[in-house]
Amino acid sequence: MHTPAAAVARSRELFDSGVSRPLAWRLEQLGNLRRMLAERREDFAGALLSDLGKHRSESQLTEIGFVAAETAHLERHLAAWLRARRVDVPLAVQPGRAWTELTPLGVVLVIGTWNYPVQLTLAPLAGALAAGNTVVLKPSEHAPATSAALVRWLPDYLGGAAEVVAGGIPETKSLLAERFDHIFFTGGQDAARVVMRAAAEHLTPVTLELGGRCPAFVDRTADLATTAGRIAWGRFMNAGQTCVAPDYVLAAPEVLDALEPLLVDAITAMFGKDPASSASYGRIVDDRHFERIAELADGSTVVHGGQRDPGSRYFAPTLLRPAPGDAVLGEEIFGPLLPLVPVTGRDEAIRMINSGSKPLAVYVFSKDDGVRSAFAAETSSGALAYGAPAAHLTVPGLPFGGVGGSGIGAYHGEHSVRTFSHERAALDKPMWPDTLRLAYPPYGTAKDKVLTALLSFAGRVPGRAKDRDARDRRAKGRES
Fold first, then answer.
1. 214 is catalytic
2. Domain check: are 367 and 390 in the same one?
3. Cα separation of 348 and 29, whole Å?
4. Are residues 25 and 145 in the same domain?
5. Per-residue pLDDT reduced to its tens digit, 116-153
């Protein structure tokens, strides 16, 4: 571990040496990261249990194993993703060839967060390394055991490829004063504004993975028992401290009346009649968040749950029937509270969703094609999922990110490589024949006619690019 300035300087020196650019180095770092997760799995599982009360199985599913799978996916496909992509050359520039290539950005700052302190710190790290960058990592001080584990083990497995800076707000401010080539931040909107202002000083591009109230709409065509199980799993996983968890349920009153007891059944099936004694149920990260969640619950109508213990930061899975104006309807909950909100139907649900900030995800539980199409056409969100919350994160080919207030940019799989790369334009124009002389002054009527004809024919050379695209797709299919 180094001071912020020293960590950045060491990372810059390593990148400038050129060692991170070859494919072999990138694959080596990804392999080392995956090896660390395998060999030190119990260390990280113990840290997650200490920080958040996570069961070992949940840690494997949503954190350690998740990053290992993401890293393996990057390793498997990276060579194909890095291949140059040919581009058609207009007649005016022929003979010649053009292509785009993904090039590393340089030194990347990754600022992690506390609710998934392994996944949301190491998944972007993997993408940045795959793209050929060096990385300065800032784990969250609100997950101290996991931060200590990252400080302890990352240098052993990755060396200078990932410099780790632990600490709190002072260390983060010091890092943000340095010059980076990209900043990746996961957290809340207020902190994101601080990051963007700091990035503006150096004109540094940013990826912001923020929160967002994720609605779930349920109608009478859905299988309500299965729907209840999936919503309960998505909401109360990690004690509700999940950015893509369903934040509230929108449904007609009669649907809510039928769904509510099924949600209670699902909660009981997962965590027992007393979730406080269940090893499968987590804890709130700290006292400040615990008090905030308690205020939200106490400001609304509890219809199930509500039990709590400040000493252990246990807060039971809780169902609410809020009244208009309740505070729980006005902010991202980030805790084990699930408001059940009546609406007349899909149109009112869509209006309600569109009246607020754009969600990180929208979940639709309906077999009605018209309902599904309406949400697709009339809402804007980072993701749209039918029939399952949070599961879209497990699909390596899907980008994960928000829109508007829920985030800027996306990552996972190939989208990570592109996020942490610059797509550089390249052109190779032979010296002979020197067709560019047609563009040189002096100009006149004859040359004007020639240039006009050439530019009007500046589209694709028929068939060639299409043939190349088809060959590229076939080759990519064979590699997959």
1. no
2. yes
3. 50
4. yes
5. 999 999 999 999 999 999 999 999 999 999 999 999 99
Residue 213 in tokens: 């109230």
> What confidence score (pLDDT) does residue 480 get?
45
**Separation between Cα atoms, residue 171 and residue 149, nearest integer Å:** 18
Same domain membership, residue 242 and residue 195: no
What confidence score (pLDDT) does residue 467 get?
Answer: 53
Structural domain span for residue 60: 4-210+412-421
Does residue 273 lie in a domain region?
yes
Q: Are strands 337-342 and 361-365 parallel, antiparallel or unpaired?
A: unpaired
pLDDT of residue 461: 47
Rounded Cα–Cα distance for residues 91 and 462 (Å): 11
The single residue of 209, 260, 332, 414 carrying the catalytic annotation is 209
pLDDT at 211: 85
247 membership: H or E segment, kind and range: strand 246-251
Tokens of 13: 């020196």
The partner residues of 248 in beta bridges, in order of sequence, read 215
Long-range CB contacts for residues 295-304, cutoff 8 Å, separation at least 24: 295/327, 296/327, 296/328, 296/331, 296/333, 296/335, 296/337, 297/328, 297/337, 299/326, 299/327, 299/328, 300/326, 300/327, 300/328, 300/337, 300/339, 303/260, 303/340, 304/260, 304/263, 304/264, 304/267
Number of H helices, E strands in the chain: 17, 20
Q: Which of 63, 178, 243, 414 is catalytic?
A: 243
Q: Which two tokens stand for residue 60?
A: 């494997």
Do 250 and 139 sit in the same domain of this protein?
no
Tell me how crowded residue 207 is: count the other CB atoms within 10 A of its CB. Answer: 22
Flag whether 40 is in a domain.
yes
- Same structural domain, 232 and 194: no
300-309's contacts with Cβ under 8 Å and 24+ in sequence apart are 300/326, 300/327, 300/328, 300/337, 300/339, 303/260, 303/340, 304/260, 304/263, 304/264, 304/267, 305/267, 305/336, 307/276, 309/276
- Domain shared by 158 and 249, yes or no: no
pTM of the model: 0.93
Gap between the Cα atoms of 89 and 237, Å rounded: 52
d(CA 38, CA 131): 23
235 and 276, same domain (yes or no): yes
Distance separating alpha carbons of residues 477 and 177, to the nearest angstrom:
44
Confidence of residue 46 (pLDDT cuts 50, 70, 90): very high
Is 465 inside a domain boundary?
no
